[in-house]
Amino acid sequence: MSDASVSEALRSNANRVVVEAPAGTGKTFQAASYARHAAIELCKGQKVLILAHTHAACGVFSSRTADLGRRLEIGTIDSLVATIAKVYHRALNLPADIPAWSIERGADCYPELARRVRLLLDRSPGVAGAMVERHPVVICDEHQDASADQHGIVEALARAGARMRFFGDPMQAIFTVGREREAQLRRWQELIAASDSNEPLDTAHRWAVGSPELGAWVLEQRERLRAGDVVDLRGGFPRGLQVFRADNRAPRYGGFQLDADVRRPINAFVRNSPNHLVLTPHNATVLGLNAFFGWRIPIWEGHTRDALSNLLSTCRRSAGDPVALGKAMCIFLEVVGKGFSATAYGNRLIQELETKCVKPSRGKPAEIQSIAHLILQEPNHVGVGAAINRVHHLMRTSQHFGDIRIDLSQEFAEARQIQMDPEISTVLARQAHKRGTRHTEMPPRVISTIHKSKGLETVNAIVLPCDANTLANNEKNRCLLYVAMSRACESLALVVPQVNPSPLFLV
Amino acid sequence: MAAKIKRLHILRYRGIRELTWRPSSGLNLLLGGGNVGKTTLLEAIGLLLNPTTSYTLADSDYFGRRVEDEFLIEAVMALPCEVNRQPGMAWPWEWNGQDAILAGVEALDDSAAPGAARPSVYKIRVRGTADLELVYEIVQPDDNVGAFSAGLRREIGLVRLLGDDRNDRDLRLIQGSNLDRLINDRGLRARLGHELAADSVDRHLDAEPRARLQLLDEQFVARRLPTQLGLAFTGSAGQSINALIGLTADKEGVVLPLATWGAGTRRLAALAIGDSLQDGHPITLIDELERGLEPYRQRQLIQRIAAGQGQTFVTTHSASVLSAAMGASVWYVDTEGQVGELPTDKISRHLARDPEAFLARLSIVAEGATEVGFLREQLDHALPGWRDLGVHVTDGGGNDDALALLEALSLGGVKFGGFVDNENRHAGRWRAVKERVRQLVFQWGEGNMEQNIIPMFPAGQIRALIEDPAEEKTGLRMRTLADRLETAETTFDALTARARERLGAGADQWTHPLIPWIIDAASGKVPDALQDAPPAQRNPFKGHASAWFKSIEGGHELARKVRASDVWDQHLGELLRPFLEAVVQTQAEPAPIAHRENGE
Fold this sequence. Notes:
The structure holds 2 protein chains of 2 kinds. Chain A is of the alpha/beta class. Chain A is 50% helix and 13% strand. Chain A is built from 21 helices and 15 strands. In chain A, strands 3-2-4-5-1-6 form a 6-stranded parallel beta sheet, with helices on both faces. Chain A has a 5-stranded parallel beta sheet with strand order 8-14-13-9-12. In chain A, helix 3 (55-64) links the parallel strand 2 (48-52) and strand 3 (72-76). Helix content of chain B is 37%, strand content 16%. Chain B contains 20 helices and 20 strands. In chain B, strands 1, 2, 4, 5, 6, 7, 8 and 9 form an 8-stranded antiparallel beta sheet that branches. In chain B, strands 10-13-14-3-15-16 form a 6-stranded mixed beta sheet, with helices on both faces. In chain B, helix 11 crosses helix 12 (427-437) and helix 17 crosses helix 18 (535-547). The longest helix of chain B is centred in the C-terminal third of the chain and has 22 residues, at 567-588. At the A-B interface, helix 4, helix 6 and helix 7 of A face loops of B.
């Protein structure tokens, strides 16, 4: 009956309502239908505001609320911060071009931006007042992930009289550690204490068409993990849950290899499902698993392009400096793929850039020289883009480049496009815009980190490796495990080693 | 929140080269001579908040007709909440009492306490471009601009009573007019269009014109054009059926458009419509409020406006309006097109007593009634017809009040002069006032007018000085001198002998021994011996003054005697000449904004 009571609480006159929403319990549905309800009562020109944390979540909300049109505005809290920062850049002591500034500073700039904007809203209540005139109802999604400053910004809207609806799940707080994490969870507690009404959602809607038993089991494990308990894998499995016992034989960190006999059922599980998430806790293991599955399953790159952002910011800073540009390109290629190593290509490339390609050469050195030439001709993002395009060309045509393999193909493809526009500011703007609108259709089968899978929904999922090194027993990992286990609605497989299994399991 | 203009900035609009003004949030009364730009100021506000898009610019809207320089009308305003409900977000600035600013986040940390909440304001403007187009913009805090839409301008709600009253837009159902907002029937236009289109005009035609239409139809057939011609009401671009609809009322059994009533009634009707808008504290612009209204209706109207909530801008030349406008902020538009405030606390008493002082082209503040009469007489000689030239002599009501009034006028920028005593007080303040208008303030070197002028009379004319031309006060004047000389005899000779006796050796410094007693009596001086006596003993001496020159008529009398004797030629003419010449000189100054298409 939680759905009904949540629905009622949302529609009440209370100013602050908090809804604790475990994965797959119909949060989006509740939020969207409440938004629809609230929109009816608004005055002309007013809009409900939904503040999400990721562009993916924005996409989900928009698809569910298309009928509301102009009575609803959906955005990430970061984009709201960026908008305010742009408008008030002089008060905040920032340049006018916030997108370019933020790309140049990298992802680290967002906390700083949020801090300044929060101070502005504290200092200048009229700004929040104007926003609340426009958005008398504000729905905050995934509020457990809000930083102190982001929370402060939302609080400013509440002070200005907005009707606040908070959705969140402290068990999905997987982005912070240590002190910050403690503060985040404490803020969630305070939020509940300060709320007029506080309701949990506890119906496992996601599993209704798959395995309802699995859904119930996942919700039960959530309570156990939350209480500091471990997941009991000793038996009594619900329909849809499978546990493979297999030891990773890879000697290298991040690698993943199994003996043939234990591998077979895992292969079968993965092969037989057209819609599949391969989930792993760390970035390093993503590449290992990519190799393990023979590069047949693409990597889910999510919606951010950190390596490309870093490359572009170097292009902006170091235009005219071919050596610095070459070094940045090498770093980029090493992040998005494998094989373009310093010893095989990088050092020679830098050398050619330093000597301006004067040395006559043939074969592989000549091909590297042809890359360097492009950067020397136009020592800016255009040259770098052309050089990356050249690498792409050589990978397909030259035997010397055949070993290079691209893991992050989307990011690589976008990097090949940066030469299209002669103005780097245009490129940066387009990049910033894409960040907001990148609704790349997710391939049906992907390898992803658990972090990037948050918010995704799939039919089948396999979580590996579940060993003690990868998933030590701490609060954050308990959340990480819960997020991983709650993605699939039909079948979930856990790969737990015989030796040194994760202490989060009782086996 | 009601819309209020906090700061107005005009650049190169019509006759105004540049102007910055911070009006008050209630009733603003704009005074000033003709042709100084009061109406332009109102029209600038009207254009900025124009609720429709129909306005055609002319090159005369640009300062000096220099269209290529563009013009700008910008306001910092408090706006109704609709400003935040437009398609594009409008972000607020903060009002610091002077201008729109951004929150001070100099020290970007938590150490500083949150600032006191300043009111949110928005910066809006209209530009006249070099292509004779109007561009309405909201200026965001990052100086980017968004649209200041006609829809939002309509929400502000402007009531305009400008120019001549051929323009009765507010009594018509024109889109954006207050009548339209009040009636608020969105579907009316479509329904009417439907209705009128169905009604064919040709059936009202006489036979012969109908035949001509028939002939045309046949021609159409011959040329294979559409046929079956008729005549009916058809809309066309820019022509709204609603514009043909006006408010009507019953006049002795006949339904007449309200537009045919008298000017005053039409204006009152338009204001009533503005007032009855629901959410309405509209911004109201009234040019020459007195137009078409009897003084009692002027007073009623201005009092109702002053009691209202909205911000109102009124120009007036009416003393009735001015004296009834309690609580208004009074502004003076000077010949440079600048707006100065007349501090209400300093002028309110005078405003009630002699409002014309604030409406004249040149106001001369005289010390008291005597000086008023004296000066008027002198002006008759120096500047014949001075009253019709816009010169006004007003009673300052004593030295301190005159000074306060002169200071207020100098703040507001009113053109003024003064004719005052010197009581040896407030030297610095007097200097400041004189610095502003130089020769236009005349102050005696020491003491009052009687002290300065009476000793100038030669001995042979003292008898004439004492004589009242109306023959009423002569005896009374002798009596006052006898009281002061402590004698019962009141003949001129007896009083002279008594005075000479009292003066003794000191008599030589006067042309006639009676002079010091005439001065004391005319000034109402209490004898030194009675300074500490009870009022009953002192007051009779004060009253002596009214027997002499202490009235406007007395001032005239003194002035005539000065002219009739050789006092003027011998002494006084030279002393007063720079002052009178300065007054005459003000008439030679050109009217400020000579080049005006839409002149007043």
